[in-house]
């Protein structure tokens, strides 16, 4: 994905103002309000798949607001679909509050007033979808306005994982293939919404999901620890190892598999960033907690279909 803007490399005291000027006043036409501004962190990367624009976004805790004066500057009518990778975002639109997190995505209108409450540091994939093209996939009375998408199971999970795969592999594809895949992504999203794949969590499920998000956030902050183990994760988060494994079964994945996948995704990000090209593949592996460069190369190839060095050459 192409880097649009990042606060990395800027003096901490200047990051928030730079983010406002480059992103909020120009790129997306919104207002932001972040209480912790002294060391703001954020980036936006972008890729296009035919009619779909995909952005990979890192945000510090903040509130994002779009009102009529912002909407008046828009030159397109579209939807936003959000798949949260880390953290939690509350979407407020048309009198509704949509709670999105790694288990629940959200779709809402870009051309109507909204608020986004980013709780903690948030990493998300956003899709910008032309309204007319997406609406053609629905009967008139079923066109979505603001809705959630369950991403832990069923068609919602297929859509979210399809989106993640495009984000990581799309750069190597030719334009014709990217355009075709963008159309197919719209089909999958429409099917997930049309089949009623959104859901309400019970109070018990909500508590467990919230606990799981908290543990995942802690892991994200400690991925570079080479001694990160289920026992250490459980002890640091005040749960038993058995309960830790139970929490991760909610996502149909073991805690060790999830840690490995996040490390690999983080390594992929580092290896594709031109400003970090001075780091060798081995340095990247060790910085993200791997004990062996050969093991890193093996599991990286197994997940992404090519070696870390091949990715660098691309």
Structure write-up:
This protein is an alpha+beta fold and 314 residues long. The protein folds into 2 domains: 2-194, Sandwich (Jelly Rolls); 203-313, Arc Repressor Mutant, subunit A (Orthogonal Bundle). β3 (42-49) and β4 (52-59) form a beta hairpin. The chain contains 12 helices and 10 strands. Residues 197-203 have low confidence and may be disordered. Strands 1, 2, 3, 4, 5, 6, 7, 8, 9 and 10 form a 10-stranded antiparallel β-sheet that branches.
Percentage of residues in strands: 15-25%
Helix content: 40-55%
CATH top-level class of the largest domain: Mainly Beta
- Low-confidence stretches at least 5 residues in length (pLDDT < 50)? 197-203
Q: What quaternary form is this? A: single chain
At CATH level 2, the architecture of the largest domain is Sandwich
Round the mean pLDDT to the nearest integer and report it: 85
Structural class: alpha+beta
CATH level-four homologous superfamily name of the largest domain: Jelly Rolls
- Total strand count, please? 10
Q: How widely separated are the two ends?
A: 13 Å
Q: Say what the CATH topology of the largest domain is.
A: Jelly Rolls
- How many separate domains make up the residues? 2
Query: How would a crystallographer describe the biggest sheet?
Result: 10 strands, antiparallel
């Amino acid at each position: 994905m192409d880097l649009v803007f990042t606060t990395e490399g800027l003096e901490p005291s200047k990051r928030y103002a730079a983010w406002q000027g480059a992103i909020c006043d120009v790129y997306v036409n919104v207002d932001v309000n972040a209480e912790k501004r002294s060391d703001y962190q954020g980036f936006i990367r972008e890729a296009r798949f035919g009619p779909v624009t995909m952005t990979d976004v890192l945000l510090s805790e903040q509130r994002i607001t779009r009102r009529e004066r912002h909407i008046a500057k828009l030159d397109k009518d579209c939807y936003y679909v959000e798949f949260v990778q880390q953290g939690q975002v509350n979407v407020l639109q048309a009198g509704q509050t949509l709670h999105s997190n790694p288990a629940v995505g959200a779709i809402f209108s870009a051309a109507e007033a909204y608020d986004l409450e980013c709780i903690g540091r948030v990493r998300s994939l956003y899709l910008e979808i032309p309204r007319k093209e997406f609406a053609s996939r629905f009967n008139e009375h079923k066109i979505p306005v603001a809705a959630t998408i369950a991403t832990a199971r069923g068609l919602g999970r297929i859509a979210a994982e399809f989106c993640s795969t495009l984000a990581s592999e799309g750069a190597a594809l030719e334009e014709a293939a990217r355009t075709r895949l963008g159309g197919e992504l719209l089909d999958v999203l429409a099917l997930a919404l049309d089949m009623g794949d959104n859901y309400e969590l019970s109070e018990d499920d909500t508590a467990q999901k919230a606990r799981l998000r908290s543990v995942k956030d802690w892991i994200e902050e400690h991925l570079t620890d080479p001694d990160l183990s289920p026992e250490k994760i459980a002890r640091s988060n005040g749960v038993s190892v058995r309960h830790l494994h139970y929490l991760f079964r909610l996502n149909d994945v073991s805690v060790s598999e999830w840690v490995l996948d996040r490390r690999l995704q983080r390594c992929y990000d580092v290896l594709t960033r031109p400003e970090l090209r001075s780091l060798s593949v081995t340095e990247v592996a060790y910085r993200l907690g791997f004990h062996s460069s050969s093991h890193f190369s093996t599991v990286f190839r197994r997940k992404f279909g090519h070696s870390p060095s091949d990715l660098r050459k691309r």
